[in-house]
Amino acid sequence: MADPYEWLDRSLHIIQQAGWYRSVQPIDGISGATVLVNGRQLINFASNDYLGLAGDPRLADAAIDAIKKWGTGSTGSRLLSGHREIHYQLEQSIARLKRTEDSLVFSSGYLANVGTIMALVGNRDLILADAYNHSSLKKGALLSGATVVEFKHGDPGDLLSKLNQFRLRYRRCLILTDTVFSMDGDLCPLPEILDLSEQFEAMVLVDEAHGTGVIGEGGAGCVEYFGCTGRPLIQMGTLSKAIGSLGGYVTGSFPLIDFLRNRCPSWIYTTGLSPADTAAALAAVRIIEIEPERRYQLWQNVQAVKNNLYHWSQITSQRYKLLPSQSPILCIEMPNSQITQQIGSQLQALGLWVAAIRPPTTPTCRLRITLMSTHTSHHCEQLSNALTSLCY
Ligand SMILES: *Cc1c(COP(=O)(O)O)cnc(C)c1O
Fold it and tell me: Does residue 195 share a domain with residue 132?
């Protein structure tokens, strides 16, 4: 008899041969602008903790108080035994930040996307999706059973032609896009997408995972930045990036949220978010509202690094390409996975921790640099100097 698991070893071997093999690296202590990796302190350009809140003592205290008050687990679905007053408070605070009517928190952003898309559309419906969307939007679209058509990344002209070609054949239509593209750092053309959605009677779900807390004067995200607050749309995001906790959310109109409470499988059939995660997120949303200086500092750091990298990109060979970015995510496209890993290790040897991104996460290899408001100007200079000396 053949071993039915034997293919696993063969697959791993192929992944290794392609240079796509990945494994985990443990971090010690509290993750901040610097992190301890294998006993060495490195400057952290690899986290999504844009405002440095994941290590903020106010979030930790809120989480500890919540555990003392409500215990560690929420013990059941929100619809049965899992709902606490603090869930309601967090949902209200997200709706206030976003200037929407109501919101719903999930155990992760991934679950928020998958379940919401499954609840909104089915096999008589059409999904139009940006080709660079996050995995959670792509998997949600597949699971929904709707017909999925991709449009060219960031291209409203292509979206228009796909709407013209397909829209009339389907009942409902849902347009899906990241607002900040997580592996590129550019923004979606939101006003154009919303105009098209109104013209073609389509719903829009935007993924603000990397926008919330970071973009827009009040930190409400790209919807605020583009002046689209109040326009009909569905917003989702995560509590685990700038918000520094764990979980996800969907926010929008009262009927939308009420419908999801009744029909969204990844919210109904899973345990409510833990009291600790909920309390930490609630503390973070308050900080985002009252401490805009964190955002200002973040954007100063982004501008400083961008200026330096712009000079560098003028003199470097064609081998390395700085991708266009309007966010704290800066990506340098690399010629192949071997060089990506090599430069990643060399940066680590110089005391800098940068993510080396390879397929299948993205079609091409890149270094992904994320800036934080808690980086100092010295941290930013060290990054620019190291890149200039390694990539030429
Ligand atoms: C991280 C991320 C998610 C998933 O959020 P989690 O809370 O980490 O599950 C969804 N969409 C995008 C664009 C992301 O970057």
Answer: yes
- The domain total for the chain is 2
List pLDDT tens digits, range 206-216.
999 999 999 99
Cα of 385 from ligand 1 centre, angstroms: 31
pLDDT tens per residue across span 87-101 = 999 999 999 999 999
Which residue do the tokens 């939007």 mark? Answer: 137
DSSP character at residue 179: S
* Sheet with strand 248-252: strands edge to edge: 102-106, 248-252, 234-238, 203-207, 173-178, 126-130, 147-151
Domain containing 39 equals 26-55+292-391
What's the start-to-end Cα distance of the chain, in Å? 55
- CB-count exposure of residue 214 (10 Å: 0-12, 13-18, 19+): buried
Within this chain, do residues 129 and 244 fall inside the same structural domain, yes or no? Answer: yes
Q: Does any ligand 1 atom lie closer than 6 A to the CB of residue 248? A: yes
pTM for the model stands at 0.96
Q: How many CB atoms lie within 10 A of CB 85?
A: 10
Q: Is the C-beta atom of 51 inside 6 A of ligand 1? A: no
Q: Can you spell out the DSSP letters for 44-91?
A: EES-S-TTS-TT-HHHHHHHHHHHHHH-S---SBTTTT---HHHHHHH
Q: How far is the CA of 48 from the centre of ligand 1 (A)?
A: 10
| Ligand 1 pocket: which of 177, 240, 278, 368 to mutate (most atoms within 8 A of CB) | 240
**229/183 same-domain check:** yes
